[in-house]
Amino acid sequence: MALRRLTDAATEPLTTAEAKTHLRVTAATDDTYIDTLVKAARYIAENELRRSLITQTWVRTLDEFPDAIELHYPPIVSVTSVKYYDTAGAQQTLAASQYSLDYQSEPGWIVPAHDVVWPDTLDAINAVEVIYTAGYGTAADVPQTIKAWILLQVGHLYENREATMPGISITPLPFIGGLLDQHRVVTF
């Protein structure tokens, strides 16, 4: 069972200009570096939250059909395809009418449609593949508290360019985690 990002976000939650305003940087000399920090902070936020911020495509593979297929990194927007290898080893695409998507739960779920049973699969690794789209949408759709957290992370990373520096103690920012709390995906 694996989860992999197929297509990353086309944009970031913050523009270079927004990050530079927060950093109080006016020169363009660090623009590429600042963009890298924004992307890094987004990845950290997505990992912390277990959520996609900007629309992206994911693939979930499983060895067989479970009772329900959990879709990580919500919010789930849509399912592109559910493919599987049948018992003869031929790849098949399940019709959308054969399953139901619960995109309101976080994480999301795919279950067989009413009166449908999952088909038998080849006894092989990664016999089932689900491709789906997840994320809030565009930068305008990302909650402001998450953007604030990203700005604070970018500021911290910009000022402290090394994880450790001889003779200097870099203090992490534990207090800002509360900005993310209401957006965390919690699984039981």
Count of DSSP strands: 8
Q: What are the secondary-structure elements, in order, as H or E?
A: EHHEEEEEEEHH
Binned, the helix content reads 25-40%
Task: Give me the secondary-structure category.
Answer: alpha+beta
CATH architecture of the largest domain: Orthogonal Bundle
What is the 3D shape? Answer: elongated
Strand numbers in spatial order across the main sheet: 1-2-8-4-5
The description of the largest β-sheet is: 5 strands, antiparallel
Question: How confident overall, as mean pLDDT?
Answer: 91
What is the C-level CATH assignment of the largest domain?
Mainly Alpha
How many H/I helical runs?
4
Count of all domains: 2
Cα radius of gyration in angstroms:
20 Å
Fold topology:
Layout: E1 2-7, H1 16-23, H2 31-49, E2 56-62, E3 69-71, E4 76-85, E5 91-93, E6 99-102, E7 108-112, E8 128-134, H3 144-159, H4 178-181
Antiparallel strand pairs: 1-2, 2-8, 3-7, 4-5, 4-8, 6-7
Helix pairs in contact: 2-3
Account of the 3D structure:
This protein folds into two domains: 2-53 and 138-181, Hypothetical protein yqbg, CATH 1.10.3230; 56-134, no CATH class. Helix content is 25%, strand content 24%. It has helices spanning 16-23, 31-49, 144-159, 178-181, and strands at 2-7, 56-62, 69-71, 76-85, 91-93, 99-102, 108-112, 128-134. Strands 1-2-8-4-5 form a five-stranded antiparallel β-sheet, with no helix packed on it. The chain has a three-stranded antiparallel β-sheet with strand order 3-7-6, with no helix packed on it. The longest helix has 19 residues, at 31-49.
